Every structure is written in C-alpha cells, then in structure tokens.
Model the fold of this input.
Amino acid sequence: MFDTDRKFWGWGVSSFPFPQPLLDRVRALLGARFGVAPPAARPAPELAAIRIPAPAIVVPAQFADIVTAERYHRAAHTYGKAFRDVVRALDGDFECAPDLVAYPRDEDDVARLLRWAGATGVAVIPFGGGSSVVGGVEADRETRGRFAGVLSLDLCRLDRVLAVDRVSRCARVQGGTYGPALEAQLKPHGYTLRHFPQSFEFSTVGGWIATRAGGHYATLYTHIDDFVESVRMVTPAGVLETRRLPGNGAGPQEDRLVLGSEGAFGVITEAWLRVQDTPRCRAGGTVSFATFEQGAAACRALAQSGLFPANARLIERDEAVFMGAGDGSHHILVLGFESALLPQDDKLSAALAICEASGGKARKAAAGGNAGGDDRASASDDSADQWKESFLRAPYLRDEIVRMGYVCETFETCTTWANFPALDAAVRAAAQSALQEHCGAGLVTCRFTHLYPDGPAPYYTIIAPSRPGRQLAQWDAIKDAVSRALIEQGGTITHHHAVGKDHRPYYLMQNAPLSLAMLEAAKRAVDPQGIMNPGTLLPPA
Amino acid sequence: MFDTDRKFWGWGVSSFPFPQPLLDRVRALLGARFGVAPPAARPAPELAAIRIPAPAIVVPAQFADIVTAERYHRAAHTYGKAFRDVVRALDGDFECAPDLVAYPRDEDDVARLLRWAGATGVAVIPFGGGSSVVGGVEADRETRGRFAGVLSLDLCRLDRVLAVDRVSRCARVQGGTYGPALEAQLKPHGYTLRHFPQSFEFSTVGGWIATRAGGHYATLYTHIDDFVESVRMVTPAGVLETRRLPGNGAGPQEDRLVLGSEGAFGVITEAWLRVQDTPRCRAGGTVSFATFEQGAAACRALAQSGLFPANARLIERDEAVFMGAGDGSHHILVLGFESALLPQDDKLSAALAICEASGGKARKAAAGGNAGGDDRASASDDSADQWKESFLRAPYLRDEIVRMGYVCETFETCTTWANFPALDAAVRAAAQSALQEHCGAGLVTCRFTHLYPDGPAPYYTIIAPSRPGRQLAQWDAIKDAVSRALIEQGGTITHHHAVGKDHRPYYLMQNAPLSLAMLEAAKRAVDPQGIMNPGTLLPPA
Done:
C-alpha cells in the first residue's frame, strides 16, 4: 500500500529534513527580490480538517483486499504535484477526490478492475508515483459528473525487476517500480538505467513511459522513449504487448501508441528497458558566459558536434543564484561526459574548446577525468555539485515557496535553434506582462535542460509574490498567457512534463486536427466506453 | 514525368553499363556453387509484347495535363522491384497495371487527385521511386476488384529542397525528391543527409519516410526516422502537418502516425529533415573473424560500447565472396567512423581493440584517419571499397540473377542479442529446408546491417537454382517458410524494407491485435473510404 509517510498534500515524505538554512536563504533572496519579506509559511493541512466528500460508490466485495475508501488514501490520490495541486491541498479542497483507491497486486488484478469499471461506469485513473505536474492523475468536476464514480488505480505493488537479460543488456520491469527501487534492483547486476527525471524519487517506470518523461541525459537519451524496448499495457479491450525488437521497422512504430498515452489508452504494467553499464569514466566541468546568447550559441555548437555530452544544462544567472550555484554574475553551463568503458577527458576538452569559441570561460571539474567506480557526480566542482543537489530537492523547496504564498510555475518546451530567440522573447514578454498585471512583479528565468542538433529544450521558471486566496486565479491567468505564447511561437506545450488536463487546451491547438482525430479513433478502439483517464490528453469522449 | 530510360521491368535505367567481367564472375561462382552452369539470361521484355489490360477508366479531362494512361507509364508503375516483380515483368504479366498514372506538379494537385479519387471510387497508390521490395506500390487482384479503377500517384515532380535552415541545420524537402537530387541540392550549402539506403539512387524522401527506410549509418541514425523533424501529409480528409519540434514530448509522438504509414494514410508531400555537415574526419578499417559467432560478439560489444560507429557491417564469408570482398576464408566486419569536426582515429583504435578482444584480426584502412573534405569512403581498404561499390550495384546484379532463372530473396529482421543464436539457427534451418525441398539446393548467407545496444539487424540472402516458370511458386513457398520462422522466433518481418502486401500476413501475426485495431481505426479517421493504398500494411477496409 501507499506509505503513509508520503505527504497527501505535496511532494515526497513528511519526514524529509528540509534544511532550515536553505529555507532562510531562499526567504531572504525572495524578500530582497520583491522588496517584501515573505509571510510565514502556511501550515500543512490536517487530514481530519480537509473537505472531502463521502465516496459515491462503495468498495466492491470482490476487491475488498485491494481497494480502499479510506480518507488518507483518497486524499493522497486526489492530485498530482502541480503548483495548483499544492495550493488546493493547502486550502483543504479535496472535493474531487477519487471515490476509491485500488492497489492491484498483479496484472490480473488490473484487468479485473478494468472489467469491473467498464461494467459499472466507473472512470479509472492510472496512478504511478503521482508526480504529475499537469493534472494527469486528477478527476476534475467534468470527469466526476460523467461517471458513476472514480477509481484511482495505484500501481505501486507492481514494483519488481522481473528479469535481467545480460546478453542484450535489458531488464523487464513492472510499471509501478519507483526510480530508487529500480536502481536498487539493477545495481547487483552492475546495471543502471540512468534515467533521472527531477521526480526520480517519487515516480515510476510506468509513469515515465505514460508521460514520455525526460531524464538525466541532455543528449541522445533525452526521454524514457530511448530506453524502451517493448511495453505491455492492459486496456479495457485486453492486453497489448509489443515484441522485444531493437529496431523494428514494420509500419508505424508500435510502442509509440503506448509511449505518451498518459493512461488514456490503458495501464502500463511492464516494459523491457535498455539498461546501461555503470559509468566508470567521467569528465565534467562548468563554463560561465557573460550573456545567455553566448551560452546558447555554445549549446548549439555542442549539440551539432556529435560529442553527445551526458549532461549539458545551461542555467541563466538569476536561476543559478536561486539554486545556490554561482554568484549571479554569469550564466553557467554544467557539462559532463560519462562512459562505462572509455576515458572522457578528450571529449570534455573538445567540448570546452567549443564553449570557449563561443565566449565562455571554461573550468574543468577537480574530480573530472577517469574516475573510479563510485557514483560521483559527472561534474563535481562546487557549482555543479550544488546544482545537482538542489535539482533533486527542488520539488520540496517548491512546496515551501507555495506555502509562503508565492505563485510559481515552470514552462518547458522545445523549438528550433533558429526560432529560439523569437520564442524566448515572446515567452518572457508574455510572462512578464502577465506577472506584472496579476501580481505586480515577478521573476522569469530560463535554463536549457536538453539539447538536440536542431534545437534546445528551454525550461522557464516563474515566481511572483501573491497571497493565499489569490494564487489560483493568478496562476490560471499567467499559465494561459505563457502557454498561448508557446503555441503561437511554434513551440510545444511540453517537452517532457506531459499534457494531462492542464495542457490539454494547448495540446489541441498544437497538434494537427487530423492527428488528434487519429488518436481519438485509436483510443476508441481500446477504450470504447472512454473510462480510461477521461479528459487527460484527449477531450472526454 | 518519369524518365523513359527507367526500366519498366526492373531496377534502374536501361543505359546502366553493367560490367561484363562482374557478370561473368558471378555466373562462374553460381555455376561452381550449384554444379550447373547458369542458363543464358532471359531477354528483357518488350514493352509492345507485354500483357497489359486496357485501362478501366479514362483520363479525367480536368487532369489531362498531369495524368496519363500511356502503356510505358502504366507498365513502369505496375510493380516495385521485388524478386517476384521482376519475374512477373519478365513473364510479360502486367495484368494488374494501374489504369492511370498521375504526375502531380504540387501539393494542390495531390489534394485534387485525392478528392477526385474519393468521389469516383478509385484506389490511390502513392509512388515515390518505386523501389519497394515488399509489394508496396502494386495493385493486386484483390485491390482491383474492389475499386472503379487504380491510380498510381507518382510524386517525382515534387523534387525540390524548398528551404535550408542553417541555424537549426535542417532542410525542408519535397516528398518526391530522389536521393541524388537531394544530395545535389544540399551540397552547395555544405550539407548532406547521409541517408544511403541501397535504393538511394532510385528512391525518394517521401518513400523513405513512408517505409521507415534504413540508411548508411549502422548505429544511432539507423532509420530515416532519426532525421525527420516534421512531416506534411495529404490525406483524403485533409492535410496533416506536424510542427518543427526537436524533442516534442506531448502525447504519443505525432509524426509516428506518418512514419511507416506506407501510403495507407495519405501522401507525404514534405518533410523537414535534420541534415549533417559534410564529414571531414574519417577513420575506417576491416576486421576478419574465423567464426561468425566471434564477429557477432564483437558487434555486440561495439554496439554496447557507446562508440557509435557510422559503419559496422558484419558480412558472412560466403556473402563477402559474392560481393567481391575477401577470399572467403574469413567473415569480415567493415568498420567506419566519421565526423565533420573531430578526428576519429582514437575511436577506431578503441573499436578495433574491442574486435580483437573477440578474436578478430584488425586492419586499419590505408586512407583512414583525418582525411580531407573529399568524399572518400569511410573505410577505404580494398575489401571495404569493393563492398561499398557492390552494395550500390547489387540491385542491378539481382535483376541479372533473376534473368538467369535463379530464385533469390532477402530477409531482414532484428532481434535481441540473447535471441539471435536461436533465431539465426531457425531461419537458416527453415531456409535450407525450403530451398532443398523446392529447389534441390540453395545458399543462405547473413550480414548485420545495423547494430543496437540490445540486438543486431541480421540480413539474410538466399539464392537457389530454378528455372523460368517455376520461380514464383518456389519463391512463395520459401518466402512463407522463412517469414514464419522469423515471426515464430520473435523477430520482426522487417527491419527497414517495410510491410507492403508481401509482408502483411506476417505483420498481422507479429503486431498485437489491439495495436492493429488502433491503426485501423486511425486509418479510418483520415481515409474513411479506404482508397489509400488498399491492402498495403493493413487489410483492405
């Protein structure tokens, strides 16, 4: 079952020891930035005090051992981890809680639950780690009104690596396996997946596949897609399993109907993943740039060089400060190469030379080069280390910032190198204008999370002063303004956060109407009643 | 219009000067192999003498300038270039010729033609270079019987590079652009796509995308998929165009509904392709192995090394002899690295060391290393050069072998490294048994065309003595036996040749029934009348 240390209202576990000095520093930075000291943090909600309706349906007798209607489990499955999820939770608003939460033990349980849901008109929301920041695991009012009830289907018991194929270097993994559990089970074999999304600690293999999650690699293996060899998905119409094929060229790529399906087609119960040997050779460094344009030019040259750095994150100066990396005088590119086999120093040198040609000031990491077998960071100078640590702690920090009453959000997209300057200008203008109008002030920063030969994946963070009671309406207005700018400028509404319910309107603008029609038809083929995660990805049937 | 030097019955152009000494050598090899001197080659068919029915429909007045019912054009669009296509053409059998052939000048013509076809119940077969070896451009009897007529829609006039985006290193290319025309138009910009399928000279960008063609790169960029940034397709329901997005993560990947659609959803009129800088640094070599198992082990280690060789083709000893590379004593791995930027010698050395650890005997190419800007072969020692030349000439040679009355065919698949030995044994057993039963003898050889971390793409060639009149029935039996073995052993019916009509039965066995149902539903969404390439990829609606 779901570990009750898990916060039902925000990120991670209640017992996480969030460092008070960091909190104090962020409070001071925010206070200085906006000229007003942040208010005291709102208290975490009490489970007994939240508003949560009685379940509309009762636990079916045949599922008594795997389905619950208990308050904690319903509350903890009401939302993902988006800004607005945390705000609503702090407000005590759990009006759209699922009626029931299921913890299937195996795929057969999943199939039985789908059959029951189809027969009784119950909507099913597949739930991995619940880390969606796009409304991907929530039953909104629109959903609730169309169904007899809502079942959140939590895959956390399907948490095992079932087989390891050492010859082909692949592992068969159950969909509910969390990131750390996956790595722990691979480690005795000398393997690692090395797919490290920011949600790593509290997200699952099935969730990664359903949302096409973005991981640690800045090039080549940017999405989980690149590690998926085959998939297995239970749909209302039965099981869909693809063959283990390294480079199948038969027809439209079969597993692409599963990757990115966001629970709208079925429940991903298993996948064969291409794992990696543990890296033993690393080389890393940082490059500082006086202008973001110089950094972007270096990233473009790197992306088109064929060097394929494992890590290459360009962080705007204001954001670096917030993350505790750098003093704010320069934009920073964190660069890392890794290999299980070959020293990476030459590649790093070539990459740093490329960066210097674009005006960067390069610095090799102290522990770079041909490191031992331990799991040291790929770039271990101070800036890089600090940034990595803060990367994984960021979702906790985000909760704290929400509790202080700020509005904050991230927008991630991708675009061509040629189009980036125009998109960047438009997104910043739309964001600043919306922040000014709705919050009176605000900070917009950018980083590149992933690089492609034809363009970057820019990731924007906004933060603005607000106060409890106004946060949601302000967020709605800002979110809409920036999202429209992304779509109008030729970007995508998501590079790796997924569509969910929050991005659906913009996804519908972005995609070709005919490809949406094809997807809707494909959904009807496996989910004729439309019970699977209704309203997520595609409009309710 | 279609160049009338193009053979209407086989590969390439009539004026190709096929080298007589090579032909003599192959005749001698085949004669020695099967103990009987090959008969004199059958004459090429005369256009005037072939059996081709009168067109069932007349050229519509509104299309008089772009549609023809002339005999040559109908004959040249009756078949692709499969073994059985050439045999039927040599037999003078053009019974299933399209009634009309269209040469649209632009996308608007394409859309008008589709509207007319929908209104009059005419089936439309998109035609790129016509190089299909899987029945992808043919109207079989089943098709003919269901429609008022059949239109072959040849895209050859949409043959331009419309734009080059130097910043993002991309080119907007029309679907009917042939390989050489594409490279010629990119060259002044210093670019190349470097997608070199064996069909390169007589295949098109749109055809590559429709069939997910495999190119020159043995790793990383194995299919055209890896170069496609966005696509534009005209369907009976309208135009589907995807955005230019380097790493879009929104929902199921949109362009994957177009890649591999084999003309069954619509006509690919344009694509933005990721092009490359012309390689200036190359390093190549060959490795010989005493056993194919050693070579396979070396390929596996290479594929899992992260070195990503541009070329890595392991050729079985008997096949190397046929291709004029090697003396038949050893299996040969042709290895090449290339880069526009960085010397590749270190990578080559590392790769050769890996191969030697698997028992190979390595030899660096004389012109390897940091070569100049000319277009030298990636591995330029004798074996490699000879093999490359014969690679591009192979389709011409295949025609000659068919004319001598042999049965020959290729089977290409992919599988995991763990499964390769079992699949290989089963495919060879099925092929040998079928060749023995139906032809009394036969040769089965294998090469690896592409390598993945989790498995190889083995490519089998069979050749057996036969005689005119028996070739088709024998081919049918052998094709079925080997294809079934591929499917039973967990392989795919195609790594890069596509499905067409020939592979459709096995594709239907291989794919999950639910994913086929999703594809069929998706097709109905854009082609409700089922006029697009009926029977190719999916069963006729």
